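User: Please look over both lines:
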Amino acid sequence: MRFAIFQDSAVGGREVNQDRMGYCFTRDSLLMLVADGLGGHLRGEVAAQIAMQTTGAAFQQLARPRLADPVAFLDHALRQAHREILRYQDLHALPEAPRTTVVACVVQDGRAWWAHAGDSRLYWVREGRMLARTRDHSKVENLVALGLLQPHELERHPERNKVLNCLGSPFEPTIEIDEAAELRPGDRLLLCTDGLWSAFSEDDLCARLAEGPVMATVPQLVRQAASAGGRFADNTTALAIDWEGDGRIDTQTMSVPEGAVTTTITFGQVDNETPADLTEEEIERTIREIRTAIQKSAAR
């Protein structure tokens, strides 16, 4: 695989950054994740971190060196993250579970699969033009689907951030998965929280993303979004890749030993009060459950 990747985050006008981002890759597979802890609930940053750790740990165990079934992996790993968040609630006797939105993407064999719950988004951009994006699980997106709101009204609607689906809710989340996209050299995939996408029109965001290499455009977009929000700016996070093609050795994957994984996802402590909740034993249990679920899906 040949790609360039960059991630950045800003706290904005908030006291705490409840966004989390990260990626893992082997020689043949790449996982990207962005999560946005819901600020209206307890410990949103913990929910976001648990989502990152659970999904990242599963990828490291199951991408050997590629995932057997990216769709099944995304579905079961994110559902397992939801269950780990509920387990955190039980362990700490919280009145409600922490909650987070999430968007995840797997790139493998020159194709991309993505999944999300909530209003963290993925954009697929080619030459400054949007080919696809995730559709928010939100009140205003439902109004657009029902024809009660025009798409251009969504971007500035006062209730655009009212989320109807997330990890950590009392109900089983909807994990919406998009089928594989055939990538071309020059394509860009952007994963971001609402703190970023809400600061730009759709066309403007895609055009700005195409203005230069991702290591320049990503931090620029994050700074501009945080600046636009001023002292009321939300946490703002973005992670993007510039796809350069498959089947050629590059400086990223050639340095990864056979069977090894490179990752930016941190494992261990998930809050400031307790030691790591995901012990080695618990990670192994999580992997077994995800592997069993994938095998059952394959059998069906």
Remarks:
- The chain is about 35% helix and 25% strand.
- The chain has a mean pLDDT of 87.
- The chain has one domain: 2-299.
- The helical segments are 44-62, 70-91, 139-145, 151-154, 194-197, 202-209, 214-229, 280-299.
